Amino acid sequence: MHNFAVVEISLGDELATERDRQESAVAITMQQAAYDVDVVRRIALPGMVLDVSDFRFDSATEMAFVDDHHSFGLCLSEAPRNSRSRFVGADMDYTPTGQIAFQPAGRTLLARNDGGRQTILRCRISQKRFDAVSGRKLNWEAQQLTQSVNLSATPIRQLLEGLSAELAQPGFASRSYVDGMASLLIVNLLRSLGFGQDNSYDQGGLTPYQIARLDARLDDAQWPIPTVGELATLLGLSERHLSRAFRQSFGTTLRDRLQDVSCARACEWLTTTDMPMKMIAARLGFTTQGSFTTAFGRATGETPTAFRLRSRH
């Protein structure tokens, strides 16, 4: 059975017009036995579900969908003829449904087609997970809803195609791969729809999700201390944006934070291990032992060797 609920107009569609209500009522009446769904493959992770489903439409019909999750869809087969859709409250006419579409949680989507079969990859993401990545509650305006019916951004297509391939043939660390791709989907969707162009992200600092990812990377002692560029790539930001947002969030610079982490890790290894200086330097990301000694002396006022001797007496 399908995940979508069939509903009367409600859900905060406060902008619903009389036309919306009439067409929704017709769609709900027609779809009672008009289509069925078989889930072919499925993976569920915290805050998201990924599946490939076969839809069967018995005849020309109209449908009304609403989901409590945000939902991406990638059509993996030829779509039924005259597939069109529109969002309630968006002041839009029925628009040809694209190969890629997105439906925000809690927004009613009215759809029409001439009947047939269709295979769709769906990536359904909980509101909590979506909001954690975006960093704020979003107000879906008519412009964004209209664009969502037919998405054309190449990064979104590539991510969905990658998820489809992973679901068909899971590889190493598949669940982590899918989880990471879902976050990238959200970011690329919001960028393609123009969210954040009011510079609210620049003014508001890093999101809780971005801070968590940054902290996790800095806490991972298995890898050298990352550069600002590496962290910017990890979070999908420019170096300038990341540096500005970090200062806004913490009142200090990211480079100072990296130096503090490097110094703290060096002090720990010098105190608790017999690791050679050359190895400590390499594990912290320094190209030479000399550059490590210089940086450590600048931060602590003494050489690594002197610090190690003093800490053990």
UniProtKB/TrEMBL annotation:
Superkingdom of the organism of origin: Bacteria
Alphabetical list of Pfam families matching this protein: HTH_18
Keywords linked to the UniProt accession: DNA-binding, Transcription, Transcription regulation
SMART domains assigned to the protein according to its UniProt record, in alphabetical order: HTH_ARAC
Gene Ontology terms for molecular function: DNA-binding transcription factor activity; sequence-specific DNA binding
The HTH araC/xylS-type domain, residue ranges: 208-310
InterPro entries in the record: AraC_XylS_family_regulators, Homeodomain-like_sf, HTH_AraC
PANTHER family linked: HTH-TYPE TRANSCRIPTIONAL ACTIVATOR RHAS-RELATED (PTHR46796), TRANSCRIPTIONAL REGULATORY PROTEIN (PTHR46796:SF14)
Name the record gives this protein: Helix-turn-helix transcriptional regulator
Organism lineage string: Bacteria, Pseudomonadati, Pseudomonadota, Alphaproteobacteria, Sphingomonadales
